[in-house]
Write a structure and sequence with these properties.
The structure is a single chain. By secondary structure, the chain is an alpha+beta fold. The chain has helices at 7-20, 23-27, 52-59, 62-65, and strands at residues 30-37, 48-50, 66-70, 75-78, 84-95, 101-113, 116-124. Strands 1, 2, 3, 4, 5, 6 and 7 form a seven-stranded mixed sheet that branches.
Length: 142
Amino acid sequence: MPTYTSPEELYRHSLRLLLDGDIPAWVGLWAEDGVMEFPFAPPGWPERLNGREAVAAYMRDYPAHIDLHDFPDLRIHRTTGPETIVVEMRGVGRLVRTGAPFDMTYIAVVSVRDGHFATYRDYWNPLAVQEPGLRFTGSGLR
């Protein structure tokens, strides 16, 4: 795997992998002890994933539920910490099961260590999980 020299480059590469549906490669961008958090997680959804294995389990079936087409409106902001970025973006595509449009706005605070995601706080809209076909994770991952 190529080495990415900045958190911005790593993040942009991760989006390309998501668009390709290459979840194993996307998970490979994570530090072994990486932590993914969902501060606005609704009941029954995980609030925190500890470690690459938990992230892999959470994302395993993502492409079978959400067919991503693009990430328009991507804005990556640097912070005073050289390894931390704040990302604003939209993910657009369709829900596989229903064919309904998928359009989600995200804000993420992401830290990188040694070229891998170390922490990722994903502030996504919990109201969107009310859409049929969006539920791609089990509740046992807390």
